[in-house]
Amino acid sequence: MKIIALKKGDRVVEKLTSLVDEAKIPSGLIIGLGALSCAELMVYKLEDKEYSSKSLSGSLEVGSFSAVIAHDPEGETHLHPHIVISNQDFETYAGHLKEGIVAATFEAVILENNEAVKRYRDSDIGLNLIK
Question: Does residue 108 sit within a domain?
């Protein structure tokens, strides 16, 4: 288990992916919370096999963040991050986190698994799924 803190201005998905690569973590789970200044969330539309997205900005509180660590068919680290965030009016949004910028801090725990987890391309679903 590793406890980490991202700094103001860090790109959450980019930084977490980099930390996972540096530590050579084969698979696992990341759990986090904190505050973002902006975020792009996505929802997958199975019937169209594409994502729709929504960009948010302002004071965003991270109520919940989790990401599965695996590797794509080419062997690259792939995080599958989901997030629940709220704005200053307590309106809540949830979805796949494409990227977010840390506003103050983002604290996370990385729970490592020693087993390598790979993804494969499922053409029926249109996504890289865990084997």
Answer: yes
User: Are 35 and 62 spatial neighbours (Cβ–Cβ below 8 Å)?
Assistant: yes
Q: Tell me, what amino acid is at 74?
A: E
Residue 62 lies in a domain: yes
The closest of 14, 100, 89, 120 to 56, measured between CA atoms, is: 100
Integer Cα distance of 68 and 44 in angstroms: 17
Interval 72-124: pLDDT, tens? 888 899 999 999 999 999 999 999 999 999 999 999 999 999 999 999 999 99
Half-sphere exposure of 42 (CA within 13 A, CB side): 14
DSSP state of 24: T
Q: Is residue 121 part of a domain?
A: no
